[in-house]
Amino acid sequence: MNSKKQNKIAIGALYGIAGLVVLILLALLGYILASGLPQLSWHFLTAPAKAFLKGGGVGVQLFNSFYLLILAMAISFPIALGAAIYLYEYARDNWVTTTIRTAIEILSSLPSVVVGLFGFLFFVVKLRLGFSILSGAFALTFFNLPLLTRSIEDSLRTIDLEQREGGLALGLSRWETITRVILPATVPSILTGVILSAGRVFGEAAALIYTAGQSAPALNFADWNPFNISSPLNPMRPAETLAVHIWKINSEGIMPDAKAISSGSSAVLIIAILLFNFAARYVGKRLYKRLTSA
Amino acid sequence: MFINNDVTKGTVMQERHVVQPNDPGHPIILSTEDLHVFYGKKEALFEGDLQFGSNQITALIGPSGSGKSTYLRSLNRMNDRIATVTGKIMYRGVDINQPAIDVYEMRRRVGMVFQRPNPFAKSIYDNIAFALRLRGTTDKHELDEIVETSLKQAALWDQVKDDLNKSALALSGGQAQRLCIARAIAVKPDILLLDEPASALDPVSTGQLEDTLLDLKQHYTIIIVTHNMQQAARISEYTAFFNQGRVLEYDTTSQIFTNPQVQVTSDYVSGNFG
């Protein structure tokens, strides 16, 4: 067999594999959307869930998902940013940084159910936070931190060493160089990483089942005082998210339209995650243009 | 000053020939004494002793790995976290190679332009203005003026004056390198260090860059590392020849190119090695 033929076969095989992956994705998306989209309505997206009767919605779960996401990001982003800047810009390669990197790697490969059970024992029980948004946000932080740190570190890595030297040569300190030269240039790719990890956090269920809990008490959307128990902003209330809701109605849902609600919720989840992904691309590109005035 | 000492290395005799500049019109502004640079345990530069006259261009030439870039980068302490530099670097009578020196302040006096153009991902205007703003120059009028003068000195003003708010990343290689020069001189240094600034440029841009440097020496002392011997011959008053981490010969550029005193220098400038 000559090399030209070999090349053709290899290319064919690679195209085949790539095609297969796309096909699987499209089939999954198609199935979820086809069975879920018909269930969607304004009522479904806003009404509270019903435990025994037909016609419940996912309004509270949807709100919980976003609220939890924002809280988790607010906690994990500053930590991840600091860790990544330290690891990539300041730390020298020695046993300390190797240990930190290994720890991050291990943390990122922990099964999320383990993170959830740890969160249950530590935040819910030990720190007495109970099943609450806060417990869930901390658990999600554990889940999210390694991935986010990695992704920010990768963003920093894309900036040439010459950019840093350029800053230093102008008499800027290392910190000024990082904050004025490096970070502005990486904002788009950091933001892309944040949005993509937001998608993962948004769809996370296992880490939340035992931390944020599986119940979604009715919320009073007219009450925005975070200290009131029925306020949507209260971080100490239990909060079932959309992903947890899907898991729950599929394992123990007893409402007559459980299947329809599960399909509808799955479609909402998938659409949200797709939106995150598209937003990541769009915002990243736009922001890059804005910041570099390209 | 005339130093002529023999260094025995194995069985080969190596000769050194160093004539420090001594021109009353160009007092010495920067000099190094007994400068050694170590990367870990490996010594990359041995006893670099050179003096530089103000408002002159000095070329550092030599084969790859001869230590010329290492030497240059030591002059504004860019090697601080990378290498160990021992010895004295005297700048206007102050040894800037001591820990007590404010290295950030010092680098504003001793600016640097790199091999690959490295404009920041900002507008052309901000590339020049942002370091000034950080140091407290916030007056818009003053900034405008500095940006304009710097760009004019770097011979870039006419090409970009209508595009100051466009991204610097859209500039061609030659333009980007001149922007980097403008950026470096905007903070008003005394000395400009250039590390093979033309090696990534085409011949036309290189020619323009050389003209720019010749203009700039009225205001700045320029030390340039170059692989291009014609370039060294065209623009510099003094030339130092580096080989294997040592300065083998230092003299006026015309001497180095027409009447080298060291065999290796002679071989190198005539293209027999390197």
TrEMBL record, chain A:
TM spans (from-to): 12-34, 66-88, 100-123, 129-148, 181-202, 260-280
Topology in membrane: Multi-pass membrane protein
Keyword annotations from UniProtKB, A to Z: Cell membrane, Membrane, Transmembrane, Transmembrane helix, Transport
GO BP, sorted A to Z: phosphate ion transmembrane transport
CDD domains the UniProt entry points to: TM_PBP2
GO molecular function: phosphate transmembrane transporter activity
Entry's localization field: Cell membrane
Domain named ABC transmembrane type-1: residues: 62-280
InterPro entries: MetI-like, MetI-like_sf, Phosphate_PstA
Source organism of the structure: Levilactobacillus koreensis
Main location: membrane
Family indicated by similarity: Belongs to the binding-protein-dependent transport system permease family. CysTW subfamily.
Pfam family, one: BPD_transp_1
GO cellular component terms attached to this protein's record: plasma membrane
The protein's name: Phosphate transport system permease protein PstA
Highest taxon of the lineage: Bacteria
UniProtKB/TrEMBL annotation, chain B:
Keyword ATP-binding: yes
Source organism (scientific name): Levilactobacillus koreensis
GO CC, alphabetical: membrane
Keywords in alphabetical order: ATP-binding, Cell membrane, Membrane, Nucleotide-binding, Phosphate transport, Translocase, Transport
One MF term in the entry's GO annotations: ATP binding
PROSITE patterns with a match to the protein in the record: ABC_TRANSPORTER_1, ABC_TRANSPORTER_2
PANTHER family: ABC TRANSPORTER I FAMILY MEMBER 17, PHOSPHATE IMPORT ATP-BINDING PROTEIN PSTB 2
Name the UniProt record assigns to this protein: Phosphate ABC transporter ATP-binding protein
BP terms from Gene Ontology: phosphate ion transmembrane transport
NCBIfam families: 3a0107s01c2 (TIGR00972)
Limits of the ABC transporter domain: 30-269
Source taxon at top rank: Bacteria
